[in-house]
Design goal:
The protein has about 190 residues and is an alpha/beta fold. Helices cover about 40% and strands about 30% of the residues. The protein has seven helices and nine strands. Helix 4 runs parallel beside helix 5. The N and C termini lie far apart (about 45 Å). The relative contact order is 0.20. The model has no long low-confidence stretch (mean pLDDT about 90).
Length: about 190
């Protein structure tokens, strides 16, 4: 009799993760964060079902050179993720006119995919890389009603106590832990 390997789905809140990494001073100049290597590390010897990256898509609303550079930079980054097998799930970005940017719909898409994957029994374990407490109701449903394992991946400088409490397991990474996932920018 062969034992079935644990199946894992990875859900990354791109904007949230970007801000947390930036708060740690990462990635360093002329480097990029290697999300594929990070996911491989998190999954370990288990079977990877999918790796999804949720992000608000940058628009050049003011037709500026800076806006165009931001659009091209994000598209290059997202195309690199797609090439590495990530399913990029786009959301919207809202500008308030005062240089404040807010993502819209990203956490809802992530929560919905998390619940659908549990209902359809696609995974045994969900790994969530986000510190957004708006995900807590979806995590509670997935754990309680569907008996799935949810691993919260956070950052030591700004861990979410709510997600730690509601998840089956949690791992917090510091800057030294994450340094192994730096890669040269030329790789993207």
């Amino acid at each position: 009799m062969t034992l079935k390997k644990e199946v894992v789905a990875v859900y990354i809140d791109g904007g949230n993760t970007y801000r947390k990494l930036k708060g740690l001073g990462m990635p360093e100049k002329l480097k990029r964060f290697d999300f594929s290597a990070f996911v491989t590390h998190l999954v370990g010897g288990r079977t990877l079902l999918s790796k999804r990256y949720y992000v608000g898509i940058v628009k050049n609303f003011d037709n500026s050179d800076k806006g165009e550079k931001m659009v091209k930079s994000q598209q290059k980054f997202l195309n690199g993720l797609r090439t590495e097998g990530f399913n990029v799930k786009p959301g919207r970005i809202m500008y308030d006119g005062k240089d404040r940017i807010r993502e819209k719909g990203v956490d809802v898409k992530l929560a919905l995919d998390l619940v659908i994957g549990a209902v359809d029994n696609l995974y045994d374990t969900a790994i969530i890389i986000s510190s957004d407490t708006d995900l807590i109701p979806a995590i509670q449903y997935v754990r309680g009603a569907k008996k799935k394992i949810v691993e919260y991946i956070g950052f030591a400088n700004s861990a979410s106590l709510g997600l730690i409490k509601e998840s089956s397991a949690s791992r917090l990474f510091s800057k030294p832990d994450l340094s192994q996932f730096h890669a040269d920018k030329t790789l993207v």
